[in-house]
Write a structure and sequence with these properties.
It is a single chain. Helix content is 16%, strand content 46%. The chain has 163 residues and is of the alpha+beta class. The protein has a single domain, classed as Sandwich (Immunoglobulin-like). Strands 1, 2, 3, 4, 5, 6, 7, 8, 9, 10 and 11 form an eleven-stranded mixed sheet that branches.
Length: 163
């Protein structure tokens, strides 16, 4: 029994730094070229859901606009950049075929009910607390790899924000 307790304590001690590293990665900003991504997150998915959304703030410190043109994740068959907006009193979602412009010297917030990324064809739904690997593709800045923490199903804010 004592040996089992010692083994479990060792496993927990080894796992804590990995959890802290994942949490640190989610809280950091990530940069490629003039593009910086921060406050990135996703939601846990209900059982049998095959699509999920992702959110973040993308800033462009450059003197020319850049464009988020795609994304991928080993957890999804494909990824798309989307927009939700009201059209004649009806909320509509559509893929932005040309991507999302990030203005020079400005930023764009991807959030529930607005611009966001979609993970399509997810076989094993995201679970709360998981870190989802994502590669964002920008027209000028190139690829940027991030890890998105999964917050609760239906969450409206980053899982690290408590207000």
């Amino acid at each position: 029994m004592r040996k089992l307790a010692l083994t479990l304590a060792t496993l927990v001690a080894l796992a804590l730094p990995l959890t802290a590293q994942a949490d640190d990665h989610a809280k950091k900003t990530h940069t490629a070229g003039d593009i910086t991504v921060s406050d990135h997150w996703t939601r846990a998915m209900p059982p049998s859901a095959a699509v999920g959304g992702g959110f973040m703030v993308i800033a462009n410190a450059g003197s020319e606009p850049d464009r988020l043109v795609g994304l991928s994740s080993p957890r999804a068959n494909s990824g798309e950049v989307h927009e939700m907006k009201m059209d004649g009193g009806v909320m509509k979602m559509r893929e932005l075929a040309d991507g999302l412009e990030i203005p020079a010297g400005g930023s764009v917030t991807l959030e529930p009910g607005g611009y966001h990324v979609m993970f399509m064809g997810v076989d094993d739904g995201f679970k709360e607390g998981e870190m989802i690997p994502v590669t964002l593709v920008f027209e000028k800045a190139g690829e940027l790899e991030i890890m998105m923490p999964a917050g609760p199903v239906g969450s409206k804010m980053h899982p690290g924000h408590k207000h």
